[in-house]
Amino acid sequence: MMARPTKEGRDMTDHNASPETAHDVPEQGVETSGHETPGMNETGGETLEETTPEARIEALEAQVAELKDRWVRSEAESQNIRARAKRDIEDARQYAIQKFARDVVEAAENLQRGLASLPAKTEGEDVLITKLREGIEGTERSFINILERHGITCEDPTGKPFDANLHQAMAEQPSDQHPSGHVMQSWTPAWLLKGRLLKPAMVVVAKGGTQGSSSAAPQGVDKTV
Predict the structure, then answer these.
(1) How far apart are CA 148 and CA 192, in angstroms?
(2) Is 132 exposed, middle or buried (0-12, 13-18, 19+ CB in 10 A)?
(3) From CA 167, how far away is CA 204, in angstroms rounded?
(4) Beta strand 201-207 pairing with 167-174
(5) 161: exposed, middle or buried (C-beta count within 10 Å: 0-12, 13-18, 19+)?
(6) Contact yes or no for 189/199 (Cβ under 8 A)
């Protein structure tokens, strides 16, 4: 006959039970569910309300409008920069010879002074003077044509209204033959380089003429009579 286990033996059997079996029984007071309490985040605070779709659309539309405005401004500024750069390059190309041209027109004016210094042409004058005059006139015409091919032109202001942008008044004199405020005599012409003033004309302005309507002296005029 088999011996019945004693009380001590039964206690030892219960004590040596498998650990897995022992952990199957949850401890009292410990919550085993993996779900968080509704309305709480990981830090224990309340969850924020989600933004509504309408609010998000409105915010995105505002952002798009701001970006579009920035792009339009940037594009306009870029166009202005390109236009200024193009204009500067064009000016540099056209007016790079401005200082040289101003010196060259001095030679043209000297030729004109040389012609003016010759005596007026008369019948039976010395052949030498005639040839000298013709030679200077031919040289002047050729020189003026060369200047014009490079955009340098001259304008004789005699008889025209005084223009402070083109003329420099050297004196003001009474005249009954010219309207007041008009150029009655020009010592030198006005020189321009492709429409831009290169050298103003030196002129004498009429004042007090019976034909004129203005008696005011031109700005910058030397009133020496």
Answers:
(1) 10
(2) middle
(3) 10
(4) parallel
(5) middle
(6) no
**pTM greater than the 0.85 cutoff:** no
pLDDT-derived band at 4 (thresholds 50, 70, 90) equals low
- On whether the CB atoms of residues 179 and 208 are closer than 8 A, the answer is no
**CA–CA distance, 43 with 65 (Å, rounded to integer):** 38
The 3-state secondary structure of the chain reads: CCCCCCHHHHHHHHHCCCHHHHHCCCCCCCCCCCCCCCCCCCCCCCCCCCCCHHHHHHHHHHHHHHHHHHHHHHHHHHHHHHHHHHHHHHHHHHHCCHHHHHHHHHHHHHHHHHHHHCCCCCCCCCHHHHHHHHHHHHHHHHHHHHHHHCCEEEECCCCCECCCCCEEEEEEEECCCCCCCEEEEECCCEEEECCEEEECEEEEEEECCCCCCCCCCCCCCCCCC
CA distance linking residue 49 with residue 42, whole number of Å: 15
Task: Check: CB of residue 203 under 8 Å from CB of residue 187.
Answer: yes
CA angle 188, 193, 194 (to 5 degrees): 135
User: Has residue 213 got a pLDDT over 60?
Assistant: no
Distance CA 97, CA 151 (A): 10
Q: Are 157 and 183 in contact (CB under 8 A)?
A: yes
pLDDT in tens, 140-199: 999 999 999 989 999 999 999 999 999 999 999 998 888 899 999 999 999 999 888 999
Judge contact between 192 and 155, C-beta under 8 A: yes
